[in-house]
Structures are given as C-alpha cells and as structure tokens.
Specification:
The chain is 53% helix and 7% strand. The chain is α/β, with parallel strands linked by helices and 333 residues long.
C-alpha cells in the first residue's frame, strides 16, 4: 500500500502542483479545498499525514488541526501546517492545537519530502504500537468472556478506577494507566486452566498457588509495550494487601503503588456487587460495609476506602463496576 496524504489548500493551483509532485514520489493523495471537506476526508480516507494550509476562508487550518487532534480516530494522524505566517505567536498557536510540524511558503519540495517521509514512518510505528495494544485488550476481553459471570467486568473496572483517580486528582497519565489496567489487569489468567478459573467454589491450596501467579504473568505479557510503563505496577500489585498479606510481593502500606490500591478497591467492590455461581450480589451498602470490616483487619487502605465510599455514594461511579475474581467474598484468588 502507498502512504496516504491528505492535501488541504483553498488554492486549486497550489493543490494541483503539490498533488502531482507527491504522486510522482509514490504517495496516494486526496485533496480538499476547505476545512469541512478536510474533516470529512480524514474520517473516510484515513490519511497517514495531513498537509494543511493555515490561511483558508471559513475554518482556518488551526481549527481544522484542533478538530483532527480532538477526534479519537484521527488524534495520532500527523499534521503539517503550511503557512506564510512567520510570527512566533502563530507557531505557538499551531503547537497548541497539536500540529506536528510546520512548512513555510514558498515550499521547498525537498524539505517537504523529507519531513513527510519522517512523519509517515513515525505514524507507522505508532500504528504498530496501537495494534499491539489492541491485541492485548482483545486477549484480556477473551479471558473475561471465559466466565459468563465476569461479563462487563473490565469495562466497569476501567471506568470506576479512572473516576477514582480523577476524584483524587492524580496526574492524567496515571488516570490513563488506570483505564488501561482496568482492561488488562487479569490478562495473566490466560495461563490459568478453566478447571481452576471457572471452579464454582473455594480453591485448593495448590489451585490458589496457580491462580496467584497471574499478576506476574500479566506483567510479563505487557512488559514489552513501553506505553504500559505505568500500567505494569498496577497489574503486578493489584492483589497486594495493606498489611502485607497479599501477593505476589507481600508489599504493605504505602509501599503498594497508589494506582494499584485504587484498582484493588474497585476490583473488590465489583466482586461483591456481582452475582456469582455460589452467591448473589450484595447491595452497594452491604459491599462497602464488608470492605470496611476488611480494612479494619488490615487488608485495605482505610483513608483510600473512605474516599472510594464517598465516590460511590455520591454517584460518581453510576453505571460502572461490579465484580472481581475472588473465590470466597473478597479474599484474593
């Protein structure tokens, strides 16, 4: 497949000249004469790169770039702003709307080609990364689907954990890590046999040992992805306990990463408020009371649990989570 470029310029002569040159270099080129047409082409053509004139009637190139970067399906598409403007504030405005590079008029075609090829190569690396993430997410959801009682667990956990992170005011990158971890936290269960994973009752000591390997296996599966740097500690430590009785590393107190402590509370709450083959779901109030008792035993972070309780009772997690993979109430499996 030829790399795809979307060329946006209201001047037809400029479009035609650039389009001819780019096609001669082996690119597939679509063009648009204005902002609305450019956004429509982005959605249908899915270009690898957008060459975008800044000064156009109606919607400016700045606004078009801002919208391209705001849309989830095109936010990673590189955008090069082509402009005759040289003022520093115009460059800053372009950076603020998400532009990846700039070209000044009159265009040096050799410079255009060099920057175009560099950004398209970067886009292909990004696409490969996204594909790898998608495979991991698909694997995690397929594991969830093995047990009919866990349906929707990943989505609920992802949403609830992220909301808790936002409530606590943690950095945005950590909130994003919680969203991802909510989906992939149990991906290591791919190594757990169905006879253990789906057992309708308490596990034997030997089966518990097999189950307790899944956080480390999950970390190993996700480790090659550099974008999962902040997700890995959540995967590994979401079964630790505040008193050190959890696993796999027997961390205690503040030694357990905050993001892991957030996800584990959401995980336990979801367990208690979801129907299981051996018991019916508890109400929210009953589940929170059980978690309070467990915190008194030293299992959970009491202060964090109070914040979590407030979030649930304030309705910030409405329609989100309910389940976890414990075999007997909220004790780790």
């Amino acid at each position: 497949m030829f790399p795809k470029i979307l060329l946006v310029d209201d001047e037809s002569a400029s479009r035609a000249a650039l389009e001819t040159l780019l096609r001669c270099e082996g690119f597939e080129v679509h063009d648009a004469s204005g902002g609305a047409a450019a956004l429509a082409e982005c959605a249908s053509f899915r270009p690898d790169l957008v060459l975008l004139d800044v000064l156009m009637p109606g919607m400016s190139g700045f606004e078009v770039c801002k919208r391209i970067k705001a849309a989830p399906e095109t936010r990673l598409t590189p955008v090069v702003l082509i402009t005759g403007l040289s003022a520093t504030e115009d460059r800053i405005k372009g950076i603020n709307v998400g532009a990846d590079d700039f070209l000044s008029k009159p265009i040096d075609f050799n410079e255009l080609l060099a920057r175009t090829r560099s950004l398209i190569k970067l886009k292909h690396y990004t696409d490969e990364l996204e594909n790898a993430e998608s495979v991991l997410f698909s694997l995690a959801l397929s594991i969830e689907a093995r047990d009919p009682y866990t349906r929707g667990h990943c989505d609920r956990l992802s949403e609830m954990s992220a909301r808790m992170g936002e409530k606590l005011g943690i950095p945005e990158e950590d909130v994003k890590a919680l969203r991802r971890a909510g989906v992939v936290h149990d991906v290591g269960k791919v190594a757990v046999p169905d006879s253990i994973l789906l057992k309708p009752g308490p596990l034997s000591p030997e089966e518990i040992e097999v189950m307790r390997k899944h956080p480390v296996i999950g970390e190993q599966i996700c480790e090659p992805l550099k974008t999962f740097r902040l997700v890995l500690p959540i995967i590994r430590h979401h079964h630790e306990r505040h008193d050190g009785s959890g696993y796999p590393d027997h961390l205690r107190g503040q030694g357990i990463p905050l993001t892991a402590r957030i996800l584990q509370l959401a995980d336990v709450y979801d367990a208690l408020t979801t129907d299981r083959p051996y018991r019916k779901a508890d109400t929210s109030d009953v589940a929170l009371a059980i978690m309070h008792e467990e915190a008194a035993r030293g299992w959970w972070d009491r202060d964090l649990l109070e914040a979590f309780r407030a979030m649930i009772r304030d309705g910030h997690a409405a329609g989100v989570n309910r389940h976890f993979d414990s075999r007997t109430r909220s004790s780790p499996a």
